[in-house]
Design goal:
Length: 124
Amino acid sequence: MLFPHGCYLVGDVEPVKDFDASTNGRFVQARDKQSRELVWQIAVMDADPTVKAAQKTVAVKILAAVQPVPPAPMPGLPFTPVRFDQITVTPYVNGNGRLAYSIRVREMTAVRPAAPKPVRENAV
């Protein structure tokens, strides 16, 4: 249900900062509160044509022990399509008092190219 038209990578995988544990000059990476796994983040573009332009790019947080490696780019495409598995969406009220969502996933994989459609020959 999330990204029904697909999504594309528009950033790099980066560690998420634990703002409470980090101090001046000392970066501490965030850990998920339940699983204690490290939290990584990547920006993706939602391909849904009905989504407003300002809301097309969203951050997806990935829970993983090591830095996830994005799929290889697909020839002929300007952005890399990606698929996420084991998704959790958590609604919250942001600092502006608006409803927002935190997207967390466990796995990022490549999108398989669609199988070519069979060529039909015209019967004579």
